Amino acid sequence: MLRKIFVAGLLATAVTSPARAQGGGGVAAIEAELAAMRAKIAQLEAEVSALKSAQSGQSAAALAAPAAQPPAAAEAVATNVAPAPESPTWRGAPQFADKNGFSFKPRGFLQFDAGHVSTPGPEYAGTVGGLNYNNLGWNSRGRRIVVGVQGTLPGGFAYNAEFNFAQAQVDYEDIIITYQRPKSPLLVTIGNFFPYSGLDSVTSSRVTSLLERASATDAFSFNRRLGVGIAYLDPKNDSYLLTAGIFGQEINNSNVARTGWQASARAVYSPKIGDDTRLHLGANFQHRVAQQDAQNVQYRVRPLTQLTDQRFIDTGAIAADGDDIFGLEFAAISGPFHVTAEAQRVWVRGFRPGRTFGPNDGAGNGLFYSGDPVFGSAYGEIGFYFTGESRGYRGGRWDRVKVKRPFDKGGWGALQANFRVEHIDLSDRADGATLLAPDFVNGGRQLAYAGSLIWNPTDYLRFMAQYTHIAYEGGPRAATVVPGSADPLDERSFDVDTFGVRAQVDF
């Protein structure tokens, strides 16, 4: 702009000067014209300098006070600038989120098991007949192949859906919708999830200390069910948890009559003591009602591994309209150490011999007993991290460990050892001294000693080895496994040893 003004002035002066010179002034006239031109140039230069100074002042003012522009202009500029593309964060898998409260993250885990289950009673191998040996010895399986998604929605809502594709079929893990406002102590959960049944059973199988959860989970059928639960918790310090819920049948129940239901409640107090110690004190209760068309219950358990489908203790079906279960929980974490223990008591609400049923009711093939059987289980465990980590804990359950020196960053990862003693009793003398129904339930007793070694190279990678020695007494297999014993059927004993390894990755 300034250059154009300057050039235009020079051109105008140059065009008029020759005409004036030709008009008759000679040398004196030309000199006068040149003087006039010099004055004109000086004037133009002064104007150019003034314009430059004014322009520089406006630029400095604009830089010093950008907010001085009208709000309408600022808004127009902002709307014309394209927002930067959102980038996913990484938490084992990409997580996408926006400022409005929407988020989405794929999740899942893979578990591959292999190992050996010994044949019980080898000293009687030549005389044993009728014992089903399927799935004993060496075996392997895809324990879990879980794929799912999780995310949040505006207003405090969230969702989670996981499907297990192991064993050439589709099973259902947690499939839930939750609601919790930020910093609110109230949490509502709707969908398919574990009823509030105890510390080990509500803990994810990703982070359990053994290959399988405690035997009570298997023996007493602590399975996920469709239901709704309400939790009152401590959103700041995670020091207490009160939960209650009502549940129907399992989500994959194929029976037409899905009338079975249960109510459950759990309370946890988990204060921190000092910098690296936390206690866990809990209690839980379940009231369960059997399906109307099949009013019976059955309790049985595998030998602490699902490499076999053998159950060496088993009550068989008991005619009942359900049961009541009470459990106590204890745990403590102090630096690299943790200890934990749980106990459960089961009261069966059985039907008496001679009970008649309506046209829509049925006891199935359950046996009738003259009293209500009572069963129980308990375990105690101690664990230690050789590499200095502490066992993860959050929300009233065990959580993922944070590896201090990951393998990919030059460390050796986290190395943990665990030892557990576990007892479960499925025998009960309801009323009388005979070994036959309706007086005696000879489900058997199982005492297990299990040790595991867990290596986490990184937070999301896990390898485990476990050895278990199990002593059995009584049960439906005792007469077959130990046919030559002079002991009563409910006191005949035998042993089983198991060894298993697992490779796991989760995201």
TrEMBL record:
InterPro entries: Porin_dom_sf (IPR023614), Porin_O/P (IPR010870). The keyword DNA repair does not apply. It comes from the Bacteria. Residues 27-54 form a coiled coil. The keyword Transcription regulation does not apply. Residues 1-21 form the signal peptide. Keywords: Coiled coil, Signal. This is Porin. It comes from Allosphingosinicella deserti. The lineage of its organism: Bacteria, Pseudomonadati, Pseudomonadota, Alphaproteobacteria, Sphingomonadales.
